[in-house]
Specification:
- The chain is of the alpha/beta class and about 250 residues long.
- It has two domains: about 60 residues, no CATH class; about 150 residues, ANL, N-terminal domain (Rossmann fold, 3-Layer(aba) Sandwich).
- Helices cover about 30% and strands about 20% of the residues.
- The protein has seven helices and eleven strands.
- The strands form four sheets. A five-stranded parallel sheet has the order 8-7-9-10-11. Strands 1-2 form a two-stranded antiparallel ribbon.
- Helix 2 packs across helix 3 and helix 3 packs across helix 4.
- One of its GO terms (molecular function) is long-chain fatty acid-CoA ligase activity.
- This is AMP-dependent synthetase/ligase domain-containing protein.
- InterPro entries: AMP-dep_synth/lig_dom, ANL_N_sf.
Length: about 250
């Protein structure tokens, strides 16, 4: 028996017969004979036979493909990346709601204001093109220094489309951690909000890799002057969005 067949038999031993809809519930949790105290959902996953000499770990793989990793879905063979997935969504659901924000008026919570997939796709292209026009090269790291909001998703999608690497920066970790992450990852552009801009500017001279700061929700007239010694530029998200034409995705 060769290694492949032994592996197949080991993995097959973890698999249950085709689960019915009735069994695909919380009641389908059961002890895994090779994973000790761990439990798994029957019919959904298989535990691979790999083990470490020390410590506990388990490798789970889909029950539908326990031997090999899946890099394409049979229903969508052309989708292989996050960029492909978003492009397909824009083409398929162009006029459907995608990103929603509760509008706050006079301190009260208003109705959702929605952006469609098509609108998000247009914004994604504008932001990616803007980064290129500001000299941010392909493969550069782009920091996202603000909490969840539609612009966060749009910038992340722009990174996928234009071959940038998005780097989340968490305000809860404190200024020292943000400074360390930016320098360690050589982040060249940072998207932030007015509240986190002041934190960035307090140690911007200690992050020489940063070339561009984009302020989400900022007002053009209220943007501070860029520190002369830092050699970087500060603009608003809206300005980046509108100041350039569209370029082809890279």
């Amino acid at each position: 028996m060769d290694a492949t067949e032994r592996r197949l038999r080991a993995v097959s031993a973890h698999l249950q017969p085709q689960a019915t809809a009735a069994r695909r519930t919380s009641d389908s949790l059961a002890p895994n004979p090779t994973a000790g105290e761990y439990a798994h959902v029957l019919g959904y996953s298989a535990v691979l036979p790999e083990k470490l000499q020390t410590g506990k770990w388990n490798v789970y793989r889909s029950a539908h493909s326990p031997i090999t990793l899946i890099d394409r879905f049979s229903d969508y063979p052309d989708i292989g990346t996050l960029h492909d997935n978003f492009v397909n969504a824009v083409e398929t659901f162009r006029d459907c709601r995608y990103l929603g924000t509760r509008v706050h008026a006079d301190g009260t919570i208003g109705d959702y204001k929605w952006m469609t997939y098509g609108e998000a796709g247009t914004s994604r292209t504008a932001i990616g093109s803007g980064l290129i026009c500001h000299g941010i090269p392909k493969g550069a790291r782009v920091g996202l220094y603000f909490i969840n909001r539609p612009e966060w998703t749009i910038v992340d999608n722009a990174c996928s489309a234009y071959s940038y690497v998005s780097v989340p920066l968490y305000d809860t970790l404190g200024p020292d951690a943000v400074q360390f992450i930016v320098n360690h990852a050589s982040v060249e552009a940072i998207f932030c909000v007015p509240q986190t801009l002041s934190t960035l500017l307090s140690f911007i001279t200690q992050m020489p890799c940063v070339r561009l700061i984009v302020v989400v929700g900022g007002i053009d007239e209220n943007m501070p002057s860029s520190p002369a010694a830092a050699g970087m530029e500060i603009i608003t998200y809206s300005m980046l969005h509108r100041q350039v034409g569209f370029l082809n995705n890279h």
